[in-house]
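Reopening this ticket.

The earlier resolution said the output was attached, but the attachment link was broken on my side. Pasting everything inline this time so it's all in one place.
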Amino acid sequence: MKKTVQILSLVGAMLFTVSGFAQDSPQKINESVVKTLNKTPNLGFGVSAERPLRSAFMMYEQLKASGVEFENYEIVIWSKVVQDIKENKLLFDFITEHMDEDITVSVCAVAMDRLGVSKDDLPKGIQVVDNAYVRIFELQALGYNFLIP
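Inline output:
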């Protein structure tokens, strides 16, 4: 019995520690890197899967928390993750929670059509673009630093 209490106490302490890490604010970026990043006002992130989509939002929060000053940050979404947003309530809620007025989230109309997703199936604030690849070319032509992991 004593051993069981010790194990449960250890597990409880570990869960408390892990949940504490999850609630920490984003890790700050080195000041010299922030200074360099401040030279470009437009940043973009292209995603076609859930993990990079979540990472794009977390990167946005890390950049803001670190003092990176940008005028535009856009996440462009295509592929099956468009359907995942519709069907996965946790992902839908994650996006809803992380949206704010300084971020643009664009979803590919081609993917929506092919996957049976309507604008009403997506979180509020998401814009629909005709074609994700064309949107990425457009953002690059506008001088965006763009990342597709």
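Reporter confirms the inline version is readable. Residues 1-23 have pLDDT under 50 and may be disordered. The longest strand covers residues 42-47.
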